[in-house]
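Our consortium's second objective concerns turning raw sequence data into structural hypotheses that experimental partners can test. To show how far this objective has progressed, the report includes one record in full. It was chosen at random from the queue rather than selected for favorable results. The single chain below, 199 residues long, was entered without modification.
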Amino acid sequence: MEAQGDYVLPVKGYQSQLYKNIQALFALEYPKPGLGKIQADFLSAQKVNKCHGRIETRMITTSELLNAYVVRPGLELVYRLERQFQGRRTGCIYGASCEVEFGITSLTRTQASLLRLLIGRRTHWGIETDLQYRHNVTLKEDTTRMMVGNTGKIMASINNLVLALLRHAHFHHAAQARRWFSAHVVNAFFLLTIHFSRF
């Protein structure tokens, strides 16, 4: 925020008061007889993606009503993002699931459309998932036995270096790069000493 950058951040359950405030704002409300429902400024959008035999429906709703009550630098909107997943195989739907995320953003409604927020959250999730997969599966961090002292942190730092070097060498698939360098060990040492465009 000091660098004047914008943010779109999920609010986790451990941020209890902020989480509860946003959850209460978007909760279904049943007005009492004789009293109307509180006027809300909700705006909503929905996007459906179909890929890999799965249908993903994402619905986002935003509000400015908490801006005066929540102390967060640059806060402009709070949001509720619901993701529904359905597997599809030979015309049959199976394995339906749903998850809800609450969050905050410094983007105003004029700066970011609802679809831009949806795409931004999906892209962030994809980057995070991809990075975790590379660390945990490709580089096998989940199966490591290095738990003494700082060895786990040191190994994670080395893995970060490896992934950075692979990106620098224009490899987009870490598992493929790992197989290639396993067959060309000398070239793996060159990564640390020389600049090159691609082997």
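The partners drew two points from this record. The radius of gyration is 23 Å. Residues 82 and 100 are 4 Å apart (CA to CA). Both points have been shared with the crystallography group to help prioritize constructs.
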